[in-house]
Specification:
The protein contains 15 helices and 9 strands. β5 and β6 form a beta hairpin. About 35% of the residues are buried. By secondary structure, it is α/β, with parallel strands linked by helices. The protein is globular and about 65 Å long. About 40% of the residues lie in helices and about 10% in strands. Strands 2-3-1-4-7 form a 5-stranded parallel sheet. α10 crosses α11 and α10 crosses α15.
């Protein structure tokens, strides 16, 4: 019987890269006892969460004929059952990756039901990667903004800190843990820290190859085409572009101009990266995260030193929103677009 490792995120912890890299190398991995199922409609396994979560992006054609969903069984149930029938009896380790399994709203996975459905596997382990909330909240908003669906950042942040939710995602990692433990035992859950796995000698892929007990190393795997890279945008350039065009979609041309300008401004300020936050907002997130992350200590305690999730990130190399002045940004906007200038003037300090 097969072992199963289910990677459930968190969102914005290199999940897409991990999924694409394993999917690209699935034939090589299979020859070494690691099965990365190609079950569609993309390179991840979100489709297996559909017994509990509606995912409109999945075409109806994936579910098979209507009769497979008879007798109280939906077609989504039938798809999941076929997956377990196809893979649980195989030799090796099945690796699944889908961050939707860690979502909170509008629906979330019933972990007790999931555990029951996976009971035919010899062993089931869940792996979840935590990320410090200062970066996590920012990354979630940036992704929503890139997709053209973001509201203004300040109300988004206020809601996240009050409800511990950002775009339906738990920012309190312990809430994800509690949900997983409603169906699985403590020894079935593995927590990793994003900053730690980023610094692994073999990058973010390395810890997963180790968990899978693979003889392969990252250099054995084919690398993704550069066009597959999911490069994070400059936070402040996205924020300024969003402020200039809201509620309309972002304009790539302005983003590119602002990013180039911010690269120069950032260098002039002696900073390495920009942030969506004002300094006060950043401190508020630090305070909230310190309290939220206390329950993670039993999971991430180590004799190798403090996990990054428990350390206060340095602000020394960050260019915050309120570090900018109108003198910084005004020369880089089209002179004739007065409406855009007024929007940014209202949003940024002078």
């Amino acid at each position: 019987m097969a072992r199963l490792l289910l990677h459930i995120g968190a969102h914005k912890t290199a999940t897409s890269y991990i999924q694409r890299r394993f999917h690209l190398n699935r034939d090589l991995l299979a020859r070494h006892g690691i099965l990365y199922p190609d079950i569609g409609p993309n390179r991840a396994h979100h489709i297996l969460a559909t017994p509990w979560i509606d995912i409109p992006e999945i075409p109806e054609s994936y579910w098979g004929p209507e009769e497979t969903g008879s007798a109280g069984r939906t077609r989504q149930d039938a798809f999941f059952e076929k997956f377990t029938e196809d893979y649980a009896s195989r030799k090796g380790t099945v690796f699944l990756s889908a961050e939707v399994f860690s979502r909170a709203l509008p629906q979330h996975v019933d972990m007790a039901d999931l555990a029951k459905r996976l009971s035919d596997f010899e062993e089931v382990k869940i792996v979840y990667v935590v990320r410090h909330q200062t970066e996590y909240i920012q990354s979630i908003w940036l992704q929503v903004a890139k997709n053209g669906k973001a509201g203004r950042f300040d109300p988004f942040l206020a809601h996240a800190l009050q409800k511990h939710l950002a775009s339906g995602i738990w920012i309190d990692h312990h809430q994800v843990i509690e949900n997983v433990l409603s169906g699985f035992s403590r020894d079935q859950l593995i927590l990793l820290d994003y900053e730690t796995i980023r610094k692994h000698p073999e990058g973010v892929i390395g810890p997963f190859l180790e968990l899978l007990e693979s003889p392969l190393h990252v250099h054995d795997l084919a690398e993704l085409d550069n066009r597959e890279a999911n490069i994070s945008p400059d936070p402040l350039a996205i924020w300024m572009t969003h402020a200039a065009f809201f509620p309309n979609p972002l304009k790539l041309g302005l983003y590119q101009k602002l990013k180039a300008a911010l690269d120069r401004i950032r260098e002039n300020h002696g900073k390495k990266k920009t942030s969506l936050y004002t300094r006060a907002q950043y401190e508020a997130v630090i305070q909230a995260s310190s309290e939220m992350n206390i329950p993670l200590r039993p999971w991430l305690g180590s004799d190798k030193g403090e996990s990054p999730i428990f350390t206060v990130p340095s602000t020394e190399q960050i260019l915050f929103r309120d570090d900018l002045t109108e003198a910084d940004w005004a020369p880089h906007l089209p002179e004739g677009n007065l409406r855009m200038r007024e929007k940014l003037r209202a949003a940024l300090p002078r």
